[in-house]
Write a structure and sequence with these properties.
Strand order of the largest sheet: 4-3-5-2-6-7-1-8
Distance between the termini: 154 Å
Radius of gyration: 50 Å
Number of strands: 35
Number of helices: 28
Helix content: 25-40%
Length: 870
């Protein structure tokens, strides 16, 4: 250090601008070097310096990463990678110098505090508790205090559901971090996660989630207290004890303040407290979760802490004559009263273990001992314990004994880790392993093609970090819930909700459900609490969007609207129910509740369009409407009105025996024929209503549940309950109008034969009937005979030709013998009667009153009565 060079110690709590001051001082010099406790902080300052100075003048040097342009004048380093004497820079700064009291890394910071000096200026940054150590070890240093820009206030315990936004929850085990993050995901939309085991890239991405406002909470270990500059309003402690590697102990007030000090930024005040309601036990020791004591609260709020009384020191310039000499120098006790020998760090533990192994016998000479010590100094990134780490170093040393590690060998080891599958713990393990190889590749004399292998290792680490960030976000961040919680308090018109062509509903590109027709269905993948928020968001933000959809539908041709199951449906989704009221055909339209929720204007337009569309669709039922109107006509008379009501009840048809036609005056028949009523031999019906269109419409409206949905085929297979508009015909059923056509044709044939018989002086004559018409319609011959039997026609089968006779077969003979005292068609099946009809007989088949067996014997009293009746 040159004469007149200054040494300053800038001490104070967090949020005092110490690091910012150091950056300003460094860029004011021609060169500079700063040492940091974390690779993450070194990278953060490196990025800031690159915005102030040309990138070619700024270097980043850490154990796993080295960006060192030729001629770089400003170095950002971790404390371990920092040049021991300062590297000849004009300005040197050491951040978080109080870490000299740390059991594992303290000796590194103590050495830099004692020996790292700038040519012109040296700056020591740390907590105010470090002042006695600076006075004792660096008596020439000028000590200055910096007050905190904002205040810290204790607000007591808070439940997870009552935590204010922009809060950090600090836990002291990965299990507790995961548990708290899971609860925040369920109840508050999620949280970012920061732990010491994460790679710097993953931590950066998780911090960016919080800083960008995508999540309002961050769950972290005590690593958050080491220089991470976050926009935090409140720090909640999930516990106040930690396992320090040897035992579970309560945090010191200074440690509490280091963590709580993350709350507040610049001149904005912050708060701290504990997290309530997450369980009664924590940590490995199982102690009950405590609350801050009054003394601890006072110390944190007023920044009054017990001073640091010792720093750990280890000989930083050991001799490398032999392994025992090296170990002896590393265990050499300090000579200053305030310095203490640290517990064996992982590098010294590894050295002592391997020194007892057979491989140590070949380590001779200062160069070999130094190289072996450098191998033992490999950081235990995987944190799997001294034994596992020692075996890894031993294998590494065996490869180094032969000189350099081959590029193919290193590339293969890195490629083994290039695997993005697995859960969070698996990816963390791979990142730790690849960090070890990144450190190995940074050594100038260990790996061939060092730069290429280092780039490969950094590339795999970056990919693994991206995958880990994705797993953490997927597990602990419910972006949809976060957005909804922020949005539900807004005005409905400002809710960022969109609806795509497929009906999917999004809030800021996050799916919350889908719309079927005009009904919102929340995403089934969400929890019960999520579904309540999703439904609330849908009810709040969708009416205006669905109102526009309703107006577009109303202005369209409504080609996708249909009538089904007594309702109007759009693409299968309910629009309105159709209520059929007595005495009127046109149904009353009652829109679905989803339509009722639409804005009044949109609802009215859609309802009016549906009513106009429905009126047009009811055109095929105009004949039925005529029946309704005639039934209300006073001129119809009671007898015609009774028949009309029977026709309406039968939806356009009624069997003749049930119509009450015997009471209808003959003069009323023209009135009924005029409105489309046909008086058939078997049925009275409106032919226009037996067409496929009106029957299908009656079924769709729910007026006639027995009507067919499909086309009204002429003939169908017989069934127990016939569809509306059909009549039994043996093993088949035939449409009523076609049955009437067949019966009328048969009567016409009979009438022609009867007229000729009367001209010849015969009273009655049998006739030959061609069954081509019913067969062409689709009836089988036997079923045609059964249908005609219902109308009173009887068939007499012709006798077959005698054996040896030639010529055409004799035709069957038909006659009309309607049953007396029984309406036509009373027995639908007439299976026994038709069986009799098929027998060749001279009797009057099918009418027991006309049978010879039923004639009373002469001289009998019943014969005399019969004569009187005649």
């Amino acid at each position: 250090m040159q004469h007149g060079a200054s040494i300053k110690a800038v001490l104070g709590p967090t949020n005092t601008g110490k690091t910012h001051l150091a950056i300003e001082r460094m860029v004011a010099h021609s060169s500079g070097c700063m040492g940091f406790p974390l690779r993450l902080l070194a990278r953060e300052v490196y990025d800031r310096l690159c915005k102030i100075k040309p990138e070619r003048e700024v270097a980043l040097i850490t154990g796993e990463e080295r960006i060192e342009p030729e001629g770089a004048r400003y170095l950002c380093c971790t404390a371990e990678a920092m040049p021991r004497g300062g590297g000849g820079a004009a300005f040197v700064a050491l951040d978080e110098a109080q870490i000299g009291a740390d059991r594992e890394r303290g000796h590194i910071f103590t050495d830099r505090l004692l020996n790292a000096r700038g040519r012109d200026e040296t700056l020591l940054l740390g907590a105010a508790t470090l002042a006695p150590m600076v006075e004792a070890l660096v008596p020439k240093a000028e000590i200055s205090d910096r007050p905190r820009f904002s205040t810290l206030t204790h607000i007591g315990p808070r439940k997870l559901s009552r935590l204010p936004p922009r809060s950090a929850i600090v836990a002291f085990s990965s299990e507790q971090v995961y548990a708290v993050a899971e609860m925040l995901r369920r109840f508050r939309g999620g949280a970012a996660v920061v732990m010491g085991a994460l790679s710097p890239e993953t931590r950066n991405k998780q911090v960016a989630l919080f800083q960008s406002g995508e999540v309002d909470y961050i769950v972290a270990t005590d690593a958050i207290g080491m220089g991470l500059n976050l926009d935090i309003n409140h720090v909640a402690f999930a516990g106040l004890t930690k396992f320090d590697g040897q035992r579970t102990r309560r945090l010191t007030p200074a440690e509490m303040a280091q963590i709580a000090g993350r709350a507040g930024r610049h001149q904005r005040d912050g708060t701290f407290g504990t997290l309530a309601g997450i369980g009664k036990r924590e940590g490995r020791g199982g102690a009950a979760v405590p609350e801050f004591t009054e003394e601890e609260i006072y110390a944190i709020e007023e920044h009054h802490f017990a001073p640091v009384t010792k720093l750990f020191w280890r000989n930083a310039e050991p001799r490398f004559d032999t392994l025992p000499v090296l170990i002896g120098d590393l265990e050499q006790p300090p000579r200053h009263d305030v310095l203490r020998t640290p517990p064996p760090a992982i590098d010294l533990v590894t050295l002592k273990r391997l020194a007892e192994e057979p491989l140590a016998q070949s380590i001779k000479g200062a160069g070999s001992v130094r190289r072996f010590w450098e191998a033992c100094s490999l950081p235990d990134f995987r944190a799997r314990g001294p034994d596992v780490h020692a075996r890894f170093v031993a294998r590494l040393w065996q490869d180094l004994c032969e000189g350099y590690l081959g590029a193919d060998y290193v590339a293969a080891r890195i490629a083994e880790l290039d695997n993005m599958s697995g859960d969070i713990d698996t990816l963390q393990g791979r990142i730790a392993a690849v960090r070890s190889w990144a450190y190995i590749c940074q050594r100038p004399d260990w790996v061939l093609a060092r730069d290429e292998m280092a780039a490969r290792a950094r590339g795999v680490e970056a990919k693994l970090s991206d995958a880990l960030h994705g797993r953490l976000t997927e597990r602990f961040v419910n972006r949809r819930t976060t957005i909804l919680m922020k949005s539900l308090g807004q005005d409905a018109s400002a809710l960022p909700i969109t609806l795509d062509d497929d009906g999917a509903v999004f809030v800021e590109d996050e799916p919350i459900g889908k719309v079927e027709g005009f009904r919102f269905i929340a995403d089934h993948a969400g929890s019960h609490a999520d579904r309540k928020m999703l439904l609330a968001a849908g009810e709040k933000g969708l009416p205006s969007i669905l109102g526009k959809r309703a107006e577009e539908l109303a202005e369209s041709s409504l080609e996708d609207v249909s009538i089904a199951r007594g309702a109007l449906r759009w693409k299968g989704h309910l629009l309105a129910d159709l209520e059929i009221r007595d005495g009127q055909l046109a149904p009353v339209l009652t829109v679905a509740k989803e339509i009722e929720a639409l804005p009044d204007g949109s609802k009215a337009k859609l309802k009016e369009a549906l009513e106009v569309w429905l009126t047009a669709k009811l055109a095929p039922l105009e004949p039925l409407e005529k029946l309704h109107m005639a039934a209300r006509d006073p001129e119809a008379g009671s007898q015609a009105r009774a028949l009309l009501l029977n026709l309406i009840a039968g939806h356009g048809h009624v069997a003749r025996e049930k119509a009450g036609i015997e009471h209808l005056p003959k003069e009323m028949r023209p009135f009924l024929r005029k409105i489309g009523v046909t008086f058939g031999a078997l049925d009275i019906f409106a032919p226009a209503l037996l067409k496929p269109a009106p029957r299908q419409l009656l079924h769709a409206l729910g007026i006639d549940r027995r009507a067919l949905e499909e086309a009204m085929l002429p003939v169908i297979a017989d069934r127990k309950k016939l569809p509306s508009g059909y009549r039994h015909a043996g093993s088949q059923a035939i449409r009523l109008d076609l049955a009437e056509k067949i019966v009328r044709a048969t009567h016409e044939t009979r009438a022609k034969v009867q007229a000729k018989a009367q001209e010849a002086g015969k009273k009655r004559a049998k006739f030959v009937l061609d069954l081509a018409l019913p067969i062409s319609i689709g009836l089988e011959e036997e079923n045609a005979i059964r249908l005609l039997g219902q109308a009173g026609f009887r068939v007499q089968r012709a006798k077959p030709l005698t054996e040896g006779a030639f010529g055409p077969p004799r035709p069957d003979r038909w006659e009309w013998r309607p049953s007396r005292g029984r309406p036509h068609g009373q027995n639908k099946h007439r299976s026994k009667q038709n069986a009799k009809n098929a027998k060749p007989s001279g009797t009057r088949a099918g009418n027991p009153n006309n049978s010879r067996k039923s004639e009373p014997k002469p001289g009998n009293a019943f014969a005399a009565l019969a004569d009187l009746v005649r």
